[in-house]
Specification:
Helix content: 25-40%
Number of strands: 10
Number of helices: 11
């Protein structure tokens, strides 16, 4: 009797095992992934939450988006092994790679490897229309919100203002918080480096009239001569309700990077999932329209992850693959 019961139990276990859905997770993959994004109210945060949903489904692996201060903190978290994927602008990544900025503590942070290009990050300056401020030069003596200290704006805007000889009082904080301060009148302006449309700008547009402050051709030239990593960038007319004509500025490209120890086949699977679900990512944020394989050539110095290099080679993407 006991022998018959044991046989039946064994058969049921075997049947149960056969009926379980196959998992895409490889035994050598980590049990979960964390993506370092930025603060709520910014493009990184929205993009990261959408990417986490896509990867969770496609990889059959729990993937979460972590709110951070932005690229600088993402690089530090990646180096410490606290996250496996992070979003960076190439300018801040260059600072980390060379250990040239104060936030690096003089350490060359070289555990990051490029995965895929995300989108261009134009620098944008915005005020409430009632402020009467009409140019970046008129921000002299004003209070300007520049987002989290570890973000691209936090790293670059102080240097921008030095080059442009603008002596402004700079305020750090989550984007949603500094945007609320502009709305309340305790800050005069926002200086932002982010993919467009920037969520906090959209929110402010819905609450009242705003104005976007252009950079002059001479200011653009001065900034690019001082910081060669900057490229020309344009925010198209109509991107925001109050933007009636093209907005010329400077920008930096964003990349998703991974820790070099992420398994190569997992990195490959991440790229496969991103590009196979591109339309869904664009629905999350329209800046993802630039998340296309060909933009991998925007990376001029970071080594690509081995798994990413293999993906681009297998898919026949034109350009140069940079290895370790």
């Amino acid at each position: 009797m006991l022998r018959s019961t044991a046989k039946i139990f064994a058969m049921l276990l075997a049947l149960f095992a056969v009926c379980q859905p196959a998992s895409a997770v490889e035994p050598h993959w980590p049990p979960s992934l964390t993506i370092g994004t930025a603060s709520p109210g910014g493009t990184y945060y929205a993009y990261g939450e959408g990417l986490a949903r896509i990867l969770t489904r496609a990889l059959d692996l729990p993937v979460t988006a972590r709110s951070t201060e932005g690229p600088g903190q993402n690089i530090l978290l990646l180096d410490a092994g606290e996250i496996q994927i992070g979003f960076v602008t190439l300018g801040v990544a260059l600072q980390g790679w060379n250990g040239s900025a104060p936030w690096t503590g003089g350490k060359q942070l070289r555990t990051m490897r490029a995965l895929f290009a995300m989108y261009d990050t134009p620098f944008q300056f915005m005020v409430r229309e009632e402020s009467g401020i009409r140019s970046v030069g008129e921000l002299n003596g004003k209070r300007v919100g520049i987002g989290p200290q570890g973000g691209t704006s936090g790293a670059y805007i102080p240097e921008f203002f030095k080059v442009l000889k603008v002596d402004a009082s700079l305020a750090h904080g989550d984007w949603a918080d500094v945007a609320n301060q502009v709305q309340a009148g305790t800050l005069d302006a926002l200086a932002v480096a982010a993919g467009v449309p920037f969520p906090s700008f959209i929110d402010l547009e819905q609450k009242g009239k705003v104005r976007y402050l252009p950079l002059t051709p001479q200011q653009i030239l001065d900034l690019r001569l001082a910081m060669p990593e900057l490229g020309a960038s344009v925010v198209g007319a109509g991107t925001y309700p109050s933007l009636r004509s093209n907005y010329g500025t400077v920008g930096l490209y964003n990349f998703a990077v991974a820790h070099r120890d992420v398994p190569a086949d997992l990195a490959y699977a991440i790229l496969e999932a991103v590009f196979a679900n591109h339309d869904e990512l664009v629905e999350v944020h329209s800046a993802a329209a630039e998340t296309v394989p060909g933009n991998f050539t925007r990376n001029t110095f970071l080594p690509f992850h081995d798994g990413a290099s293999r993906w681009y080679q297998n898919k026949g993407v034109l350009g140069v693959i940079r290895g370790d």
